[in-house]
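Hey, can you fold this one?
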Amino acid sequence: MNPVDTRMALLALAVGGFAIGTTEFAAMSLLPQFARGLGIDEPTAGHVISAYALGVVVGAPTIAVLAAKIERRVLLIGLMTFLGIANGLSALAPTYHLMLLARFLSGLPHGAYFGVGSLVAASMVPREKRSRAVSRMMLGLTIATIAGVPLANGIGQWFGWRWGFGIVAIIAAATVAMLFRFAPVLRPAKDASPLGELAALRNGQVWLTLAIGAVGFGGIFCVYTYLASTLTEVTGVSSAFTPVAFALFGVGMTIGTLVCAKAADVALMPAAGITLLFGAGALALYAPATPHLWAMLPVVVLIGCGGGLSTILQTRLMDVAEEAQTLAAALNHSAFNTANALGPWLGGLAIAGGYGLPSTGWVGTALALGGFAIWAVSWGLDRRRVSVMTR
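Sure. Predicted structure:
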């Protein structure tokens, strides 16, 4: 594959990431609108967010195992087709319970798409550039937080929240066409099998890496889910301003993805630890900043920068998963969507307990530090193993 084809293939993968990022994060930003539209309160509407996350958690390992022998381009096209249909159903859902089902279905292809897409991206470049190739695909997700989410949020406010999901179905259709034209044919190994993929679950470092993401990334989702409500009810800005704040979050995530990818190609595990501590520090600034718009905007950017952790952990899983690459790569996004369920749930408990919307920042700080503690265990085991091997 020549360099031009590689760039176009990575672009096709990134457009799919853009569609997924838009549907995942736009649902959070549109929470007040679809809560009103479906006649439910905001805490109940938060269950719709959790339904998507549950779909990711269930879908990523299930699809990765069952599709172990399917050619990768065919699998990616099928996953994106399913995503488009499920988002069309989300746009048309007439009741709360049907919306729950549609969002669960929308989440099913998420983890498998990013997992398989990461392997395809890494296969097109030298080993020492893997993280940067994966980050190019992940830029689709981060750019979605800059452009896709504000676009969907704006469309949702101007034309109705249903169009915020309908636009994702259109983007998914465009991705299918691009993948068909540019994605390389990448056949799984001859000995690939569902049982072979399940071998990843016997590796303790795989579980520790997944736990870092499930806990450490929860802080970002905790704050992000309630950001729109915090801006309007605590900071005191108009709802029309919220797309700007979400775009700034996306700017931070894009910066974090690029910087963390370069750092990961140099020193993978130290980059993960530093990113977690950075994220904890940024989240600790959130609660004091909430009354002041001038403080909130830069803090939102800093919190977004912590999103670079995703690319680091994706590469880490490639290193520790041995022969079960597909399942491990897909499980990374199950872990992050466990965080997507855990963070908003804990944040909701803090709000319901009377601590107020700003308390989501403190909950997020605790989760980031929890992720750092798990990272310390994982790194310590790595160092011990190296020490034993060099004796």
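Residues 380 and 386 are 10 Å apart (CA to CA). Let me know if you want another pass with a different chain boundary.
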